[in-house]
Amino acid sequence: MAAPRNLQGAIEAILFAHGEPLVSDRLAALTGASVGEVEAALAALESSLDADESRGLALLRHGASAQLVTHPRFADQIAELLRGELSQDLGPASLETLALVAYFGPISRAKIDHVRGVSSAVSLRTLMVRGMVERTREGKGEHRYQVTAEFLRDMGITDREALPDFDELGALLTRSLAARDASGEKQGQ
Question: Which CATH number is associated with domain 7-73?
Fold first, then answer.
């Protein structure tokens, strides 16, 4: 794959869609650019976002990883949004996401998105802000989501295996993911 003509724009789109930090090596693989080209594009993107006060995003760099985040100059507005979210009931999308994390966690966002058929980024953020779900990472692997001890306490259980129909639903997800993997292998041949 050849690097896109607008590498900076491609990286911005990838980081926005992913919603979590990505390392430069992964961005290079996704764009077909070299790591050096990616680093230069990230520096230009960071400069561009910081220089334009009308932009609501900032580039957060931590080591070799980069993530698009809301710009600190809009912290008051974001805090107001989060206060509003905390005062509302969870919507159907968040409840569906919470059920998947509760029954099948630790689970990756990709698997949650596969089962739901849509992106779960906003629902996961809402659940994390409310302290119901936490994000973990083992080694350099993908982030995994699981329910918090507070969630289990609030549900009145000590272990997620105590959730209704735990074994039956676990088997259902396992079959669904196996079917997805099998169809992906057939398409790749």
Answer: 1.10.10.10
By C-alpha distance, which of 173, 147, 172 is closest to 162?
Answer: 147
**Which token pair is 63?**
């080591």
Running along the chain, 189 residues long, what does each successive block of 10 average in pLDDT? Answer: 80 88 91 93 92 87 87 81 65 86 86 87 87 82 85 75 72 71 58
Distance CA 13, CA 30 (A): 11
Rounded Cα gap, residues 49 and 26, in angstroms: 22
User: How many Cα atoms occupy the beta-carbon half-sphere of 178 within 13 Å?
Assistant: 6
| Residue 154 DSSP SS3 | helix
- What kind of architecture, by CATH, is found in domain 89-188? Orthogonal Bundle (1.10)
Residue type present at position 60:
L
User: Residue 11's pLDDT is what?
Assistant: 94
Considering the chain, tell me which residue range(s) the CATH 1.10.10.10 domain(s) occupy. Answer: 7-73, 89-188
